[in-house]
Amino acid sequence: MGTGWLVVVLLLLLLVGLLVAVRMDADGPVELLAWVLLGALGGAPVVAVGTAWVVPMFITPTLVGGLAALLAGGLLVAGGVQALREYPWRGPTESEALVLLAAAMVGAVTASLHTDVELMLSLASWLRTGEAECFYMQTFSLVGDLNQGGSPDRIRDAWQIVNSPGNTAYTAALMPTLDGATFRIVDVIFRVLLFLFVQLALVRWTRFLISLVAALFVVLNPFMLYVEVLDRNVIAAALTAALLFALRARPDKALAHGLLLGLLAISGLRFLPLVFAVPVFIVHGTRGSNRREWGAVLGGFVLPFAVGVPHLQHHGLHSMGETESWWELLQLTLEELPRTPFLPFPTGAYYYLTVLDFLGLGVCALAAMGASRSFRREPAWGVGLTLPLLGILAALSVQRDWIQGDKVRIALEALVPVVVLAALGLDELFDRYRRRIALAELAAAAVVLLALGFVTARLDVPVDASTYLRHPVHQTETDARLAPSRAAVARFGLLPDYGRLATKLDVGRKRAEEASVRWTVYGPGSPLADRPREAGWWGGGEASEPLVVLADERSVLLEIDLALLPTAPDDAVREVASGAPFVDLIDRGKLLDIYFRSVVVPWQAQPLGIAALPLRAEVDGLGELYLDLNAFGSLGTDRDGFTRVGPIHLRSDHGGSVLTALPDASSDSTIRVRVPRNYRVLVRDWLVDSNAGTPHRVDSWTVTVDDGGVHVGYGWGEPESYL
User: Model-level pTM?
Assistant: First the structure.
């Protein structure tokens, strides 16, 4: 679209946000900025998405700009002009300037750590086949430019995905305007909003310094940084913070409370954030709100929540990915304590240990102490903060089939109450009259949480084999293969575990990976090279050739014993002086498209397929050689005796999906690879739906070499990294 129209649409969106901010009586530039951003995102874009689903019709910049103009005009007529005139405009105080500077830092960090690789791959799949991953498909189905020649009926077809609106409510309306930058920009805005609203809420509960530190922690803790993409649970966390702040600082804004609760409810998976209706009812109940105010809450809630009505028509309010009711799942959990295959603990225990590890025992103990303070000083808020938190964790604890790696993120919907309570607990330590008692309470909470963590980490329950029927995968679980997963999940300490992030903080790798994928999917000679608009979203026109990692002139020959890798990784990999390599990156002139071997290992009942594709752009673009386990399988031999190799879910020849590899008669589980000394070798064990081929997650062993020798690191349950 033209630059002029882009500016007009964005200015209209910001005008809506500004009118929302002044009607919320924003106190100072920090709160003003927060409401402007939220009003811009939660106004016309959400209305546009709802309109597109109901009509149905494709979204265009004209639709979004027109709706923004209508909303702005309505707000101006309904007292907006006077509100703008009477608003007490002022500059920031020193403390507010510090918050604004920190908000800018949060935005910069988010922009750098965000990755659009999954978006690129999903868009490529959509352009080729009309299919894409989950919410990406819902977004693409609404965008006019991505459905040229298509019927609007596909909008309703896409809505039948088991998925509530989530980030689609914000991205689908902005994508025609912001193109490929949409997901990164929306991610930045919502994380900035999360920071701002947590700080604004906490400064009314605690000291300024504590509010600033806690607000930075809520966006920069390992659990939040673990998510590299725009995620519905991050959006839900930001809207939770906005709702809690509005209830705390603006208890008379009943309509705003309803609107925020409605936006929050449609953002989380299966409307799980509806539990935050608890503080709304408590605040309005304790202040004695009249019928008009209750009506405003209900009316405000219904308006944005209507966007989720099509989802309710298809799926109802049943559990997340389940057909059983919540009550049936609770009974099953209490009676059998089921465990999902390849998840080392029952779901509730898994989440408890994950939260302890990501946030640290110390932060969790502070949160427990903060809950005690809330019930002692403000019982209503004690209930309002702890009940939704416990409700989310309880709902997650009864889920089965938690085989997908990205489901760990759903607990982020409870992050804001945890951080608020932790800040309240920390504030207790600054009270000199209660410091000794507070230290005793903190120690007691830490001991209880630690004991519960040790007990939970030693749970050993049978696997729920029925999961294999609902989510078929190629391999079956064994104790040996589960051992490294149990160790990774059960690990927790006093402080937040940033070690769990692995390469997620490597900004250089993220940009190189995006460049490699962009070149592979949209570059010259690719199937989508003739789609200039889509390709131009990443690179300002045609896809630019990615940078190449400068290979070390020295090489290393690594011997990897796959039979030992899960149980004894340090003994499984060593540098050797000689031997025939499975893949040799040094002799580039002789490299083939694919190398494949099938072996038997003691930690897996099924044959283990090992595949390497050394000519992929990522090898030189990232300096990484991938050995993919359980991703490819043999489809027999062709008439010339070569091995036919295809994705693990293929059971017959699917044309272009099949590759041809040299026959490898070796059944030895020890393989050798020769790589430049500064390259990494990633052994990736894929957990793939053996029918549809959808990857549930990837576990990986990263092999690096330096002057200190060979090092092996283990990464568990990656939802994006190395995909």
Answer: 0.94
